[in-house]
Amino acid sequence: MSLSWIKKISVLLALCVMLGGLTGCTDNNSGDSETAEGTSESGEGTAEAEDTIKVGFIFNGECENGGYSAGVNTDRLAASAYTDIESCYIDNVNISDFSAAVDKLVDEGCDYIVSGSWLYTNVLTDVAGKNMDVNFISYGARARTVNVYAYTDHIYEGAYIAGMAAAYNTDNEKIGIVVDPNMMYTKPVINAVALGSRIVYQNAETFVAFATQDGEIHSAVDALSDEGCDVIISYTESPETVEYCESNGIKVIGNLDYSKTAADYENLLMYFYTDHDSLYLAQFKSMQMDTWEPEEYVGTLANGVVNVSSALDCARDGTQHIIDALIPKVTSGDAYIFSGEMKNVYGNIMIQQGGILEPAEVYTMDWYVLGVNTLPNFVVPKQDLEQNDLEIMQ
Predict the structure, then answer these.
(1) pTM passes above 0.90
(2) What are the chain's domains?
(3) Dihedral of the CA atoms 362, 183, 274, 88 (nearest 10)?
(4) pLDDT digits over 45-66, tens only?
């Protein structure tokens, strides 16, 4: 988070203490006599109601299944709890329905629209251009426009540490990863896992299985096990990879926030995840103070958006030492993931010794590093997308 944002938040919090509960929503439907009593001659009560801000979130996944979208929705609620801004959401929105979801939220009175999935990045740019009186906060976007705040994150930093921890806990130098192709930066995440694992074992192999739905995830985990992978990493919208591994006694690393439920799992080694509640809170506060501006923001380990848990009970002794040693190096930039000589799966040198990939090059990686093996795709194409009734939820 930039210094300017920190200063803004400090001022905003101080003002909130002074204002107390005076910024609450006012009911415009109350009777005339009540309105007359509750409103001064200056019309402050009416102005307060007119200034009420509403924010609408749109999610590609389901907010009730404990998955990635559910986690982002939890961040929304956490940020909302510290402001008087009203927020709502629509989940399970396909890319083709995004524009209609925006229209519905705008009709509901939303002044700001937050994208909860990077899948909407391209279509959001077009929709924002047609709705210049609405401000957008776009997850996965890397370039702002006049009414779009762009934010992304380096989740591959967490995946790098996960790959190292996974290799330390394997018996046969084979790591599996179940990947939902709809997640952001899948190739950088896969490559980061592979590079992390090879810090522990020079010839460690990373096997990748793509899956989205629960049944596909089961098949993917089974196939990875058949390849000899005794530790599996999840990078999916759904929590099913961890659930299925747990039920089958397979050591697993999750990509969601298990801080409240980790004790329920005997085979969970650790987990990594993103946490956007502080970012949303800063956005909400700036909306309240009418200082919101379209900017660009990158979440990392350094600013607390990307998080890595401690090693859990089933992890081998020494796992926590590895995590503790690596996090500061990644955070400070001393251990830059995509640097040094790097070969692709065919043995061709993609990065020369001493070279690095800039973030923009990481975002657009279209190759796998040496040691990555991809299995057949387990995603079953849907013939017809289910029609979403676009129900607005609080």
Answers:
(1) no
(2) 3-28+50-154+276-299 (3.40.50.2300), 156-274+306-374 (3.40.50.2300)
(3) 130
(4) 444 444 689 999 999 999 998 9
Low-confidence ranges of the chain (pLDDT < 50): 1-50
Determine how many CB atoms are found less than 10 A away from the CB of residue 359: 14
Q: What amino acid is encoded at 367 in this protein? A: W
- How far apart (Å, rounded) are the C-alpha atoms in residues 118 and 138? 8
**Torsional class of 173: left (φ above 0), alpha (ψ -120 to 50), beta (otherwise):** left
Per-residue pLDDT of 184-215, as tens digits, reads 999 999 999 999 999 999 999 999 999 999 99
CA 288 and chain centroid, separation: 24
Residue 388: predicted pLDDT: 74
pLDDT the model gives residue 183: 95
